[in-house]
Amino acid sequence: RSHCRVVCVCVFLGLVYCPDRCECQHPQHLMCTNRGLRAVPKPAARVSEEALVFSLGGNFIGNISAFDFTRYSNLVRLNLQYNQIQTIQPKAFEKLSKLEELYLGHNLLSHIPAGTFQPLKKLTILYGNNNEMKKITPELFANLDNLVKLRLDGNSLEVLQDSVFKSLTSLHYLHLEYNQLQHIHRNAFSKLTSLRFLNLAHNKQAAVRSALMFSQLRALTTLLLSENQIQHVGNHVFQNLKKLSTLSLSNNRISRLDSGALRGLSSLRELLIDGNELEEIPAGILDSLERVEELDFSRNRISQVDPSAFSQLKHLKVLKLKNNMLTSLSGDIFGLNNALYDLDLHGNNWTCDCRLEELKRWMTAAHSQGKLLTVFVQCHHPATLRGKYLDYVNASQLQPLGNLTHLCRSQAGPEESRGGGVLVKVKGEETGGDSRSRPAAEAARRRAKGRQRSNVTSRADPASTSSPSRAGILEKNTTDPNTEPTYTTSTSSTSPVQSGERFDLLRSDQEEALPVITDPCVFNRHFISNVSVDHVTSSTATVYWTTRDHHSHTPGPGPGLDEVHYRILFDRFGTQDRFPRYVYTRGTARSVTLRELSSDVTYMVCVEGVVGGSVCQVAPRDHCAGLVTLPEGLNRGGVLTSDLQLVTVATLAGNAVLLLVIGSVWLGRSLKRRLQRRKSAVHVRHMYSTRRPFRPTMTTASVSADFTSYQSSRPARLSPLEEGDLIEFPCERFMDSNSVRRDSDMQRFSD
């Protein structure tokens, strides 16, 4: 009854305090949203003093009078969004001295009288977004010194006059996007010393020149100036924004940045300047961005980047230069950006010539150390390499084009590759060597190039000779000239090259080539076998294979091709991120040690032949092997392998013995219980029968009484008893002297 009384009282109070056509399930919240109201509903006979929230959104209210909220003096939040409000009387909020949140967004307001918000001394949030206001004045925000967030986006503001926000000393967030702002007074943001977020995107600003415009915003962390019409950014515009973390200048018309345009942004972490008309990134323009982590120069017209443009950016992690007009980049341009892991160079017209050798070397070295995501540098020139990625272009194919020979370095160091790459010096080209050997070496190099060119034209894929290499440098062990050379990957860069040294990839030391198989697919199918992996640790593994004597199986006289080499492909298996890496070896090698693998990862390793600089377009599935690297810190040798095998066998044997013992114990107990049951069970048929007298030795008064009562209670039509009327139950039943239990059991059986 008390519960019913409480419910009735609550319903009664709700009916008394609730305005017409509204719901007031909670006395503190007057819910009048989406009720088709065309005016603020009149208050009930008795207004609840507990009402803190008044929701009137989603109606058709067109006017706010001076008397609509006079009886709601305790309101903390008032929501008038998504109505059709055109006018607000100056004294409409005069009684709402405790109001903290006022939402006027998505209405038809073109003007708000000065002083309308003056009584709202405690107001912290004011939404005036998506209206039709064309002008705001300092008097509109008078006395709002507690305001924290102000939204005026989505209006038609054209001008911000001098000190228009001077009363908002506590303002943290200011939204002015999607207006028509063409002119911002240099002192428009004065007194906003606490402002942290300023959004001026999607306006009509043509330039940012005045150094005073943002000079007082010393607490600002985010400044958005995207989607304007900015063509020029002047010097020292942002010099006082010491705490600025994000600056967006995206999708403007900026064609140049003054040398000091970004000066003072010592805390900037993200600079977005994509979608502009920049043509170059000069030296020193980014040097003041000491802590920048992300730069986006995408979708500009950049054709030139100074080699030292990014040299001071020690914390740079993400750099986007996609969809520009770059054709080449200096190889050491990113040499000092040790934190860089995401480099986007896609969508440029790259010319894959000798000027990209150093860039390729840096990329492969960074890949081998796991510091860089895949970089898509797709060749546009020359035609023979068009559509191929720099990762998959052989260093020997990066030749000078036209009259650009003087731009290429004459001393090309060994290629640093993620999968290794056999880099063989061309004899006779060392500085200071016998000059008579140079013409022969140069002729040999020209013959090799001619053979490679003829081989390229004879295949369907013009770039099938590309030989990507990715896992470090393979170093030849030549301590003993009589022993077979072995190869191992090196994690560090090779030593500097002497002046004048020339290197060629996949080239034999022999002056005259041996006759070999001409088709790499035939070579893979008939001459490579027994691919296996051994000596697996957490970061290394050794791949072995055998090769039949292919010289005796050469189909006819050889065309003068180079000797056969081998390419070892390895990649993570069973993951979505596929990143194949390659190791190249000389023809005499039959094993390769893969290094810098990831711990506890499954890899697939394949061995294939490289014949005349070409590989088979069909992967050699028959010559692949899988491996799983050990967890970090666990290495495995021959002794450890055998120890692990012994431990495994011993464990299995122990488990088998334990299972046998458990099975034996269970079987013994089961048999024991079965024997006990058989001994204790006595069939009633042997103790009692209605067709012969009961055995005297088993007769007791209680038993005869029980069965006398049992037989006497049976219907007469069932007498005399037949064989099927006999019953069975344990003999302990008859030996029980407890009369109570006996009577209850007999009653159950009787039923």
UniProtKB/TrEMBL annotation:
Position of the signal peptide: 1-24
Pfam assignment, any one: LRR_8
Location of the region described as Disordered in the Swiss-Prot/TrEMBL record: 410-500
Stretches with biased composition (Polar residues): 455-469
Keywords: Disulfide bond, Leucine-rich repeat, Membrane, Repeat, Signal, Transmembrane, Transmembrane helix
Record-linked InterPro entries: Cys-rich_flank_reg_C (IPR000483), FN3_dom (IPR003961), FN3_sf (IPR036116), Ig-like_fold (IPR013783), Leu-rich_rpt (IPR001611), Leu-rich_rpt_typical-subtyp (IPR003591), LRR_dom_sf (IPR032675)
Membrane-spanning ranges: 646-668
Name listed for the protein in its UniProt record: TLR4 interactor with leucine rich repeats
